[in-house]
Design a protein that fits this description.
152 residues, 5 helices, mainly alpha
Length: 152
């Protein structure tokens, strides 16, 4: 299928977004794409850190950068794995988990990248907010599985 055909299918030829992109039976495809992109950019940032920043940053700053990459990869892959849990948890909860993981990556990993590259300690207090999003996301995942698919 050409890109134009894919665009027509995604927009129902009317310009409005096809409802199949918002899957009511499981994870919203936008969250799934976000997880894939988080994992892909984690690979790129990891390579950049290992090859581009190694000679520039102090070892402690490089370690900080690598922690950001690691947590971004963990949570990107966790989002990608969420559809496998759709038989066990409600879409409402699974989509909330994905949202928390995306926000967590932005706050946690993003602040660590900025802290490592700039050395500006003002980014440090943002990191725990991202960590809190991760923790709440994992607890929400447990709730999703515990409550099951039929209970919201």
């Amino acid at each position: 299928m050409s890109w134009a055909g894919a665009l027509n299918k995604a927009t129902n030829n009317t310009g409005s977004v096809n409802q199949s992109l918002s899957n009511k039976q499981g994870l919203n495809k936008l969250w799934l794409c976000a997880g894939i992109l988080l994992a892909a950019t984690a690979v790129m940032l990891g390579a950049f850190g290992a090859h581009g920043l190694k000679a520039i940053l102090a070892p402690s700053a490089l370690t900080t950068f690598e922690i950001g990459v690691r947590y971004q990869m963990y949570h990107g892959l966790a989002i990608v794995a969420l559809p496998a849990l759709s038989a066990y948890g409600s879409p409402k909860w699974l989509n909330a988990v994905a949202a928390l993981f995306v926000v967590g990556c932005a706050l946690f990993s993003g602040s660590l990248y900025l802290l490592a590259v700039t050395g500006n300690g003002l980014f440090g207090p943002i990191t725990p907010l991202g960590g809190l999003c991760f923790i709440i996301g994992w607890i929400a995942l447990a709730v999703a599985v515990f409550k099951g698919k039929t209970n919201d």
